[in-house]
Structure formats: structure tokens, C-alpha cells
Specification:
This protein has three helices and no strands. The longest helix has 19 residues.
Length: 90
């Protein structure tokens, strides 16, 4: 799908904001320090995929989306203070 330049800029902003949030997280920094104290260096690679589709403005048949999350996905989101209802993760 072709997206306009404004949408591309917004998607880039989202990626930058997420990256900055992780980099500036005291909790992440503390965990990295603990790992270094244990004798390890860490290389962290996060993969972010953003899917876009035009907004039709109407809620109708076929508009329901599903998302399957593993237990590890849920744990990562919870550490990021994103709440997921465990009964609705699939």
C-alpha cells in the first residue's frame, strides 16, 4: 500500500518514540547494569512492524481484528506497562 508522506512521518515518529522510551527507561538501564555486573554485555535489537490500512470511518461486518500473543509477548507488554487481558489475548 502506498502511503502519503505525512503518514510516513507519523510512523517514523512512533518508531522514534518507542526507541527513546526503551533507551530512557530506568528499569531497562537497571536490568542492563545487572547483566553487566553478571559479566555479560548485551546487544538489544527490537523489531517494530507497523501495519497501516485506510480508515473507512464505518464499523461494520468484517471490521473485527484478532491478535495472537504468546505468553512472552504478554510479559514484554506488561513490563512496558501495557495491560493485556489474558482471556482476550487470542
Amino acid at each position: 500500500m502506498d502511503i502519503d508522506e505525512r503518514a510516513k512521518e507519523i510512523v517514523q515518529e512512533i518508531g522514534t518514540a518507542i526507541n527513546e522510551s526503551v533507551e530512557s527507561s530506568p528499569r531497562v538501564a537497571e536490568a542492563i547494569d545487572r547483566l553487566r555486573d553478571a559479566g555479560y554485555e548485551m546487544e538489544l535489537t527490537l523489531r517494530l512492524e507497523i501495519g497501516l490500512r485506510p480508515h473507512s470511518g464505518e464499523e461494520g461486518e468484517g471490521s473485527e481484528a484478532s491478535l495472537e500473543l504468546t505468553d512472552e509477548d504478554v510479559q514484554v507488554l506488561q513490563r512496558m506497562k501495557i495491560r493485556i487481558d489474558p482471556d482476550e489475548k487470542t
